[in-house]
Amino acid sequence: MTLRPLSDKVVVKLVEMEETTNSGIILASASQEKPQVAEVVAVGPGGMVDGNEVVMTVKVGDKVITSKYAGTEVKLNKEEYTIVRQSDILAIVE
Questions:
Q1: Using an 8 Å Cβ cutoff, are 39 and 62 in contact?
Q2: pLDDT of residue 31
Q3: CB contact set of 87 (below 8 Å; sequence gap of 6+)
């Protein structure tokens, strides 16, 4: 099975970020906040959303920063994904 987003939706997979404190201690993912950096896995076609034309500006493979509590979490084939609106994506990481 695959996910194919509709309209202005984007499927992202959160990127596990290993974080190190100033003293060199590596923090376990359980002690960190939810990561906001994600990789785009699938992009909807855009089109008319709420009476406005939406042009998709992100593409598969982009690393993006999403709003902290945005989206719907989905588990498919033992992988966790988040489906967000393109407007919930704050920036593309280059």
A1: yes
A2: 46
A3: 8
- Quick check: helix, strand or coil at residue 91? strand
**Phi/psi-derived region of residue 35, left when phi > 0, alpha when psi is between -120 and 50, beta in every other case:** beta
More confident residue, 75 or 21: 75
Q: Transcribe 16-72 into DSSP letters.
A: P--EE-TTSPEEPGGGSPPP-EEEEEEE---EEETTEEE-----TT-EEEE-TT-SE
Q: How far apart are CA 48 and CA 13, in angstroms?
A: 25
pTM of the model: 0.79
Task: Give which of 22, 40, 21, 18 is closest to 30, Cα–Cα.
Answer: 18
Q: How many Å apart are CA 73 and CA 51, to the nearest integer?
A: 26
